[in-house]
Structures are given as structure tokens and as C-alpha cells.
């Protein structure tokens, strides 16, 4: 497929999606979000891919949903058409791990897209924010729910209610970001983390992703039970035998299911 708004490539066992609407700071329109979904479908189906990175440009990961595209929406356009929400959850449903590699602005829907990913690796130039309030709307792709889970109520309220931006250092300190690296090293760092993950047993990677996500879905006891069940099932994998045998034999494991 020829994409209009993204670039799609593979780097070893990593699928790389680069948001590519530079003139609009990668503002997320309907076509772009559809294209992300299509690219993820391809990477999920590809046995040669073990992890995915989504990145933007030096100036912007994404400056939000496309304001021009929704400026004249009526309530019926938004609600009945499910227009801008229908394709946004695809990142969340991806079973392979997805890393957001963020430089520059990650605002509104851009911040929400990054938070839908499993991990954010940020350049020291990154700026996160939920400034929708300035436009007379509120976050609509999970910002009011994922941000407090990541950074706590105090900072989430601060960002959503004042519209101020949070820089990379503050975002890392608050727990939104896994790592902050100099801007010129950021993509390499994200690709290298993704390649590391893609080298492990894919079923185990997926079990870990599913289990960690459970921590945000229900009670601690349910989460612990889920983890234990999945943990027990890992002993059915050849890769568990291989991983442990390799440790005992002091060699590198050769995982079969990647
Ligand atoms: N939508 C459309 N175009 C945009 C957007 C955007 N979100 N952000 C920037 N652009 C465009 C600008 O209009 C400008 O275009 P042009 O050159 O044609 O005038 C170009 O990108 C460059 O932008 P600026 O000249 O403004 O660049 P600056 O460096 O001066 O400023 C900022 C950068 C601070 C990022 C500024 O552009 C800005 O404030 N942008 C808007 C940020 C924002 O409000 N984001 C939230 C949008 S609403 C949202 O995301 C709701 C999410 C709900 C999801 C719902 C789905 C379920």
C-alpha cells in the first residue's frame, strides 16, 4: 500500500512507522490514523517482526488531532459517525510491543497516541501536553484516563486544566517516559530497545505485555491471579526449556518462537 501520511520500513526484526505530515507537525487526521492501523496489521501478521517503533520528526511526534479537520464538526458528526474515534484504539490492540520514540511536540492526540504505546522513549527536546482545553474541548483519545495512571492525579490535572507543556526531564521524573536521551541518539535508542525485545521469545513478550497491562484494568488480586496463570502457562513453551537450559549451560539462548 502507498501511504500518504506515514513512512513504513523494517529494521531487522523491528517495524518502524514514521509519521510524515511535516507541514502540519504530524497532526493526526483520519487517513493518517487509518494508515497507522494498516501498517500495524502488516507488522502483526509478519513473523519477521518482533516489535514496533512509532516515531515522528525532530520537531514533532504529533501536535495533536488535526484541528482543521474537526473545526466544523457538529455533535452528530462526532457521535454518529464515530468519525475521529473509530480507528484510534488500534495501537492498544496490537499484541506485539509498540514503542513511541518521541522528539519535539507530543500534544493532545499526539500525547495520547504515545501513551497508547507500551513504552515512551523521549528525546531531551520532547514536550508533552494535553492543551485541548484551549480549543474548548477535552482530551478524547484516553488522555484523562492514561495520563493520571502514568503521572498521578496532581500532574494530570495540572496538564489538562492549565494546558501547560511538560518537558522530557519532568516527564521522566513523573513516570510518563521510560528513558530520556539526547535528540540525535533517540531513534537509535528506541530501535535498539525494540531489537532487544524482538530477540526474546515472542509468546513470552506478549504474555508480559498482557500481564503488565492488566495492572491498569482491575484489582491487584485479579492482576496477580492473571499473572500467575500466565506464568504457569509459560512452562508449556519450548522457549522456557531453551532459556533455562541455555542459562545452565552458560550459552546464549536460541528462542524458537520469535
Ligand atoms: N492540527 C492541525 N494543524 C496543526 C496542528 C494541529 N493539531 N498543530 C500544528 N499545526 C499546523 C499549524 O497550523 C501550522 O500550519 P501552517 O504553517 O499551515 O499555518 C503548522 O502546523 C506549524 O505550526 P505552528 O506555526 O503553530 O508552529 P509553532 O512552532 O509556532 O507552534 C505548536 C507549535 C505549539 C505545537 C502549535 O502548532 C500548536 O499549539 N498546535 C496545536 C496543539 C494542540 O492544540 N493540540 C491539540 C489538538 S486537539 C486534540 O488533539 C484532541 C485529541 C482528541 C482525539 C480524538 C480522537 C479519539
UniProtKB/TrEMBL annotation:
<dbReference type="InterPro" id="IPR029045">
    <property type="entry name" value="ClpP/crotonase-like_dom_sf"/>
</dbReference>
<dbReference type="InterPro" id="IPR018376">
    <property type="entry name" value="Enoyl-CoA_hyd/isom_CS"/>
</dbReference>
<dbReference type="Pfam" id="PF00378">
    <property type="entry name" value="ECH_1"/>
</dbReference>
<dbReference type="GO" id="GO:0004300">
    <property type="term" value="F:enoyl-CoA hydratase activity"/>
</dbReference>
<protein>
    <submittedName>
        <fullName>Enoyl-CoA hydratase</fullName>
        <ecNumber>4.2.1.17</ecNumber>
    </submittedName>
</protein>
<comment type="similarity">
    <text>Belongs to the enoyl-CoA hydratase/isomerase family.</text>
</comment>
<dbReference type="InterPro" id="IPR001753">
    <property type="entry name" value="Enoyl-CoA_hydra/iso"/>
</dbReference>
<dbReference type="InterPro" id="IPR014748">
    <property type="entry name" value="Enoyl-CoA_hydra_C"/>
</dbReference>
<keyword id="KW-0456">Lyase</keyword>
Amino acid at each position: 500500500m502507498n501511504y500518504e501520511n506515514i513512512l513504513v520500513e523494517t529494521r531487522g526484526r523491528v517495524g518502524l512507522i514514521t509519521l510524515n505530515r511535516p507541514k502540519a507537525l504530524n497532526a493526526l487526521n483520519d487517513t493518517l490514523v487509518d494508515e497507522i492501523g494498516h501498517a500495524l496489521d502488516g507488522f502483526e501478521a509478519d513473523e519477521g517482526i518482533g516489535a514496533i517503533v512509532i516515531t515522528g520528526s525532530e520537531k514533532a511526534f504529533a501536535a495533536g488531532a488535526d484541528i482543521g479537520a474537526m473545526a466544523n464538526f457538529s455533535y452528530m458528526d462526532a457521535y454518529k459517525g464515530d468519525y475521529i474515534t473509530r480507528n484510534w484504539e488500534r495501537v492498544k490492540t496490537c499484541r506485539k510491543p509498540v514503542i513511541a520514540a518521541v522528539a519535539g511536540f507530543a500534544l493532545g492526540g499526539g500525547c495520547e497516541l504515545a501513551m497508547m504505546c507500551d513504552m515512551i522513549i523521549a528525546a531531551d527536546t520532547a514536550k508533552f501536553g494535553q492543551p485541548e482545553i484551549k480549543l474548548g474541548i477535552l482530551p478524547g483519545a484516553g488522555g484523562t484516563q492514561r495520563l493520571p495512571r502514568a503521572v498521578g492525579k496532581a500532574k494530570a490535572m495540572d496538564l489538562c486544566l492549565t494546558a501547560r507543556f511538560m518537558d522530557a526531564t519532568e516527564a521522566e521524573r513523573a513516570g510518563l517516559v521510560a528513558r530520556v536521551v539526547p535528540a540525535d541518539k533517540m531513534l537509535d535508542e528506541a530501535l535498539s530497545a525494540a531489537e532487544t525485545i524482538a530477540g526474546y521469545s515472542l509468546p513470552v513478550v506478549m504474555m508480559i505485555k498482557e500481564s503488565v497491562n492488566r495492572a491498569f484494568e482491575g484489582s491487584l488480586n485479579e492482576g496477580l491471579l492473571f499473572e500467575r496463570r500466565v506464568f504457569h502457562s509459560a512452562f508449556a513453551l519450548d522457549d522456557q526449556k531453551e532459556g533455562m537450559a541455555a542459562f545452565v549451560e552458560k550459552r546464549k539462548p536460541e528462542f524458537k518462537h520469535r
